[in-house]
Amino acid sequence: MNAEKNKLAGEVVSHMMKHDLFSQWLGIEVLDVKEGYSRIKMTVRKEMINGFGIVHGGIAFSLADSAFAFACNNRNVLSVALDTSINFIKPVHVDDILTAEAKEVHNGKSTGLYHIEIKNQKDHVIAQFKGLCYRTDKSLISQ
């Protein structure tokens, strides 16, 4: 049964990535998907730098948000962000390779809670993200 659920999770995330032009622009690569879980990575580019010479916080937020979306939607139940927050722990620089891992904390009928940890290539935690989603009654793909 888990293999079936994880197969569906992968199909849903593949569908999402195909249509998610922003995640494609970020250069996101999906590393692993399981029911209620995702792990993705990206390499930071120079056009992602802010006026302080470090990477714009929106980049780390967006990476975490994509991991959140892939984890909370991969049961094929369209889910949207209800509340999110992020704590920035370390600065991010050009050429850093960021990995975001989304883990499900709670899977309810109408909401889901996810914790996303973002690390750089040195395995340093650079940010922590928390996302609460609202579950709709719609599917993302036909089965």
Break the fold down into its secondary structure elements and pairings.
Layout (H helix, E strand, L loop, with lengths): L1 H18 L1 H6 L2 E6 L2 E7 L13 H17 L5 E10 L8 E11 L3 E9 L5 E11 L8
Antiparallel strand pairs: 1-2, 2-4, 3-6, 4-5, 5-6
What key phrases describe this protein's structure?
143 residues; alpha+beta; Thiol Ester Dehydrase, Chain A; six-stranded antiparallel beta sheet; 6 strands; 29% helix; globular
How does this structure look, described?
With 143 residues, this protein is an alpha+beta fold. The protein has one domain (2-135): Roll (Thiol Ester Dehydrase, Chain A), CATH 3.10.129. It is built from three helices and six strands; from the N terminus they run ααββαββββ. It has a six-stranded antiparallel β-sheet. 31% of the residues are buried. The mean pLDDT is 96.
Q: How can the largest sheet be summarized?
A: 6 strands, antiparallel
**Architecture in CATH?**
Roll
- How many DSSP-defined strands? 6
Structural class: alpha+beta
Q: Class in CATH?
A: Alpha Beta
Q: What's the overall geometry?
A: globular
Uncertain segments of ≥5 residues (pLDDT<50)? none
Work out the radius of gyration: 15 Å
What is the CATH fold-level name?
A: Thiol Ester Dehydrase, Chain A
A few lines on this structure:
With 143 residues, this protein is of the alpha+beta class. The protein has one domain (2-135): Thiol Ester Dehydrase, Chain A (Roll). It is 29% helix and 38% strand.
